[in-house]
Specification:
about 475 residues; alpha+beta; 2-methylcitrate dehydratase PrpD; 2 domains; five-stranded mixed β-sheet; two-stranded antiparallel sheet; 19 helices; globular
Length: about 475
C-alpha cells in the first residue's frame, strides 16, 4: 500500500495517535459496517447495543491515554480530524447520563461506559500489541456483529483480516502493487529510493511530490501540504502561550511558556549562550507535546507521542536557518514523509510494538532528513542524516509514567529535535558516503523491537514508569 504524506501526517487530537486516534477511528469504522458495510451474523436482529474490549497496551495504558473516551466518541460518530472539543464533551456527558449512543444513520444503541468498555489485562491479541474488539448485539442480546481492530501506530487502523493479508503479501507484493498503481517512483527501501534518484536526477522530495501527484492534483496537493505545516506552526504557537497543570493526575506543569519567555528576554539583552539554540529546539518540541498531553489539536509526525520533533525542527529551519523558503518548508515535509513511510513499511512507528525508538527515533530520522533536504543536501546526504538520527535512538524504550504521554515523552521530543539537527549537520558536512545504510538501521530497529521486553513497550510496567518518586 502506498503511504501518502497525508497518511504519515494526520491532523488529529491528543494524547496518543495509537491509543486515542486509532481507537476512535476503529469505532467509527465499526459504525460504517453496522450501517450496511458488511453482513451481520446469521439470524441476528437489528443492532440495539454495542460494547468494546481493549487488549494489550490499549488495556494497560488506556486510562492514561483516554482510550475509553476515544472509543465512546467514535461510537458517537466523531473522528479525530474534525473533532470539535466542545461538542465532544457534550456528547460524553449525555452518554454518561443516558447510557445510549446515537450515531447518525443507526438506531439508538445501548451503551454503559462503565460496563461496556472492558480493559482486558490478559495476554495481548495475536496480531499486534494494540488490539480492541468491538461488538454489537440485537435487542435479545444475540451477537449482531463483531470485529477485531489493531491500532498499529500513527493513527493507522487495520482489521485482523487486513493485518493478516498484509503480512502474507510481503514486500515484493507491495512493491509490485505500487508499480501497478502507476506511481512513478515506487521505492520500498532506501536503496531503491537512492537508485531511482540517481536514475531520474530528481531529489527525494521531488520523487515524493511526483508520487503524491499521482493521487492528488498539484493545485490541491501543495495547499494541503501547506496546511499541515500551518497546523504544526499553530500548535507550537498555542503551546508556548499556555501554562498551568496538565491533566491526568501527575500534576506535571507546562514549562514551554516560561522557558520561551526566558529565551525571549535573553535574546533582547544579547546575553544568550551559544548552546541556547538547543533550548529553542527543546521549547518548540515541548510546546507541541504539552498541547498533545492536554488533548489538543496536533499532527501525527509520525505519531502523537513524537509529534513535537518535526514541528520543532521545521520552526528552527524557518526562523533560524539562512536561506529558508516556503518551498523549502514543503520539501522538508515531503522528504520527511518519504523516510517515515520507509520506516513504517519496513519496521514500525508504534511504541507498543518496538518502543520509543519507533516513535521519537523515527521522528528524529524524518526531521533530520527533512532539514537536510531543505538545506540543499543531496539524496545521499539526506539518507545519511536519517540513518544517523535513527541509529542513535536504537533501543529506546517506551515507558510512560501512569500511561500518560507526559513523563518522559515531553522532554524526549526536545532531545529528539536536537539530535535531528545534529544528524542533518553531520550529514551535510560529509559527501553522503557512510558505513551503515539506512535500510540496515531500520532493520536493526525492527529486530531490537522484537527482542525488547513488553515491559518497555508502552505498558507502563517497566523503566521510568515503575521508578517514580514516592509521594
Amino acid at each position: 500500500m502506498f503511504l501518502s504524506v497525508f497518511d504519515i501526517f494526520k491532523i488529529g487530537v491528543g494524547p496518543s495517535s495509537s491509543h486515542t486516534m486509532g481507537p476512535m477511528t476503529a469505532a467509527a469504522r465499526f459504525l460504517d459496517d453496522l450501517r450496511g458495510g458488511r453482513e451481520p451474523e446469521p439470524g441476528a436482529g437489528e443492532p440495539a447495543a454495542v460494547a468494546c474490549s481493549l487488549h494489550g497496551s490499549l488495556a494497560f495504558t488506556g486510562k492514561g491515554h483516554a482510550t475509553d473516551r476515544a472509543v465512546i466518541l467514535g461510537l458517537c460518530g466523531f473522528v479525530p480530524a474534525t473533532l470539535d472539543p466542545d461538542a465532544a464533551e457534550a456528547a460524553l456527558a449525555k452518554v454518561a447520563t443516558d447510557g445510549i449512543v446515537r450515531p447518525e444513520g443507526l438506531p439508538p444503541l445501548r451503551f454503559d461506559p462503565d460496563k461496556d468498555v472492558v480493559f482486558d489485562y490478559g495476554p495481548a491479541l495475536p496480531g499486534h500489541a494494540n488490539g480492541l474488539v468491538l461488538r454489537a448485539f440485537d435487542a435479545a442480546g444475540h451477537l449482531h456483529m463483531e470485529e477485531t481492530y489493531y491500532s498499529v501506530g500513527g493513527g493507522f487502523v487495520m482489521t485482523a483480516r487486513e493485518l493478516e493479508a498484509q503480512a502474507q503479501g510481503g514486500a515484493d507484493a507491495l512493491h509490485a502493487a505500487k508499480a501497478a498503481e502507476g506511481f512513478p517512483y515506487p521505492f520500498g527501501s532506501a536503496a531503491e529510493m537512492l537508485e531511482m534518484g540517481r536514475a531520474s536526477g530528481k531529489s527525494i522530495a521531488e520523487m515524493k511530490w511526483a508520487n503524491e501527484a499521482r493521487l492528488t492534483p498539484m493545485a490541491e496537493l501543495k495547499p494541503r501540504v501547506a496546511a499541515i505545516a500551518s497546523t504544526m506552526r499553530d500548535c507550537v504557537t498555542r503551546g508556548i502561550a499556555q501554562d498551568g497543570i496538565l491533566p491526568g493526575g501527575l500534576s506535571v506543569k507546562r514549562r514551554a511558556k516560561a522557558i520561551h519567555d526566558q529565551l525571549q528576554a535573553e535574546a533582547g539583552r544579547n546575553i544568550a549562550q551559544p548552546h541556547t539554540v538547543n533550548d529553542w529546539l527543546s521549547v518548540y518540541a515541548m510546546a507541541v507535546n504539552e498541547e498533545n498531553a492536554a488533548g489538543g489539536k496536533v499532527v501525527t509526525a509520525p505519531t502523537n507521542g513524537a509529534a513535537g520533533v518535526i514541528p520543532s525542527v521545521l520552526r528552527y529551519y524557518e526562523t533560524q536557518c539562512i536561506g529558508a523558503t516556503e518551498q523549502g518548508a514543503l520539501d522538508f515535509l515531503m522528504a520527511a514523509a518519504a523516510i517515515g513511510g520507509l520506516i513504517k513499511h519496513n519496521a514500525s512507528i508504534s511504541g507498543a510494538e518496538v518502543g520509543c525508538q519507533g516513535e521519537v527515533g523515527s521522528a528524529a530520522a524524518m526531521a533530520a532528513a527533512g532539514l537536510c533536504a531543505a538545506l540543499g543536501g543531496t539524496n545521499e546526504q539526506v539518507e545519511n542524516a536519517a540513518e544517523i538520527a535513527l541509529e542513535h535512538h536504537l533501543g529506546m524504550t517506551c515507558d510512560p509514567v501512569a500511561g500518560l504521554v507526559q513523563v518522559p515523552c515531553i522532554e524526549r521530543n526536545g532531545l529528539g529535535a536536537i539530535k535531528a539537527v545534529s544528524a542533518a549537520s553531520l550529514a551535510l558536512r560529509g559527501d553522503g558516503t557512510h558505513f551503515m545504510p539506512l535500510d540496515n538501521c531500520i532493520e536493526a530497529m525492527r529486530q531490537t523491537g522484537i527482542d525488547m521486553s513488553t515491559k518497555y513497550k508502552e505498558t507502563s510496567q517497566g523503566g521510568l514508569a515503575v521508578n517514580i518518586p514516592e509521594c
